[in-house]
């Protein structure tokens, strides 16, 4: 599992650098991320497989996105408004559900 979280963190860092158009050449990016150049190329391919509109900009000498893009992987808490809570609970208030679940 540690390997997966490490790879996700690496993709998130690479996404940040791409959005900033601050990756530099592949060799520079590999040094910055402390990975091999081959790993950088594999990551680019993975990003493309995940539909990232990524390309190498020769003028900037940096990877870039052709459209506004961001990569997020993880679980995020979402607040529910009152109507969404009713829909989720079948009309029963969340506080009532908590009381019912306490035996």
Protein traits:
mainly alpha, HTH domain-containing protein, 2 domains, HTH_11, two-stranded antiparallel ribbon, 103 residues
Structure explained in plain terms:
The protein has 103 residues and is mostly helical. It has two domains: 2-65, Arc Repressor Mutant, subunit A, CATH 1.10.10.10; 73-103, no CATH class. The protein has helices at 2-19, 26-33, 37-49, 82-89, 94-101, and strands at 54-57, 62-65. The protein has a two-stranded antiparallel sheet with strand order 1-2. The longest helix is centred in the N-terminal third of the chain and has 18 residues, at 2-19. The chain starts with a helix and ends with a helix. The mean pLDDT is 84.
Give me the secondary-structure topology.
Elements: H1 2-19, H2 26-33, H3 37-49, E1 54-57, E2 62-65, H4 82-89, H5 94-101
Antiparallel strand pairs: 1-2
Helix pairs in contact: 2-3
What percentage of amino acids are in beta strands? Answer: 5-15%
In total, the number of domains comes to 2
Global Rg = 21 Å
Envelope shape: elongated
Structural classification: mainly alpha
Protein name: HTH domain-containing protein
Organism: Croceitalea vernalis
InterPro entries: HTH_11, WH-like_DNA-bd_sf
